Amino acid sequence: MTYDELVTSIQSYTENQFPDVYLADGTTEGSSTQINRFIQQAEQRIYNMIQFPSIRKNVTGTTTISNKYLSCPDDFLATYSMAVINADGSYEYLLNKDVNFIRQAYPTPTDIATPKYYALFGPSVAASVISNELTFILGPTPDAAYSIELHYYYYPVSIVRGQMTGVGAITGGSGYINGTYYNVPLIGGTGTGAVVSITVTNGSVSAVTISTSGCQYLVGDTVSVSSTYIGGSGTGFSVPVTFTTNPNGTSWLGDNFDSVLLYGCLVEAYTFMKGEQDIISLYDTKFKEALALAKRLGDGMERQDAYRSGQFRQAVT
Predict the structure, then answer these.
(1) Which residues contact 107 (CB under 8 A, 6 or more apart)?
(2) Does the reported pTM lie above 0.85?
(3) CB of 75 within 8 A of CB of 158?
(4) Peptide bond into 140 cis (omega under 30)
(5) pLDDT in tens, 184-218
(6) pLDDT tens for each residue of 137-185
(7) Between β-strands 95-96 and 117-126, what pairing exists: parallel, antiparallel or unpaired?
(8) Cys-Cys with 172: which of 24, 95, 197, 205 at CB 3.0–4.6 Å?
(9) How far apart are the C-alpha atoms of 218 and 190, rounded to whole Å?
């Protein structure tokens, strides 16, 4: 099932095209924004309920001498394993401990050696600025630049097609009112639903920050905004789309277990609609049935083989 097929199915099952919704702050939320939220909420629920091997990845990094902290990847969700890779290529796996254990066992900066333990420490702090990204603490503190392999869980790219993640050189235009404007909807291009923050300096747009990625955009699209949202005057601003995610609108779930994705989306959509309780219960039951089959695969069949675990035998009655 592709993104387009999933959207059509959600609209058909619910008999709802999800027309524009006018929010309390005066902005409008379009159909694609609503449906994309249902999809991403369902994906998040599924990925946190089943440990599919497809939501794990490996990265390698390097420790810094006398620095006990190691940054997590931007898309980090949870640890699967961490290992030091020795010069001869052999692996020494680190044991997961609590931060307090590492602090107590290696209390001083001079406690340096090959790391044996790690813990998820918390957000990194640089110059009093707290980052959203997490860090690991190692114990003992590395005494050399060791290669580290981290095997971890992450959120795969959503099935939502063509989310805008980057823009290019700004054509600033002229005559705009100076200031910073938030929740500004983009117009133009092949997609819908992208929302940005706009900074105007000396009457020209000087900065664009994506706050909502929208969907169905293509690299090379040129987008702009209505001057109504940035002071009421000015012309000539535009910016090209340079990066999008998942241009084909496919995902592992959509290709391999579309039933759990579809019914998860229907639960989210019908809850949003405040639909009849018996229909919500039906969709929730179908979702749980599909989820049980997916758990059989992700938490069962993909974690065993016939040699070690034996083949399943159904009792004959």
Answers:
(1) none
(2) no
(3) no
(4) yes
(5) 999 999 998 899 999 999 999 999 999 989 999 99
(6) 999 999 999 999 999 999 888 999 999 999 999 999 999 999 999 989 9
(7) parallel
(8) 205
(9) 7
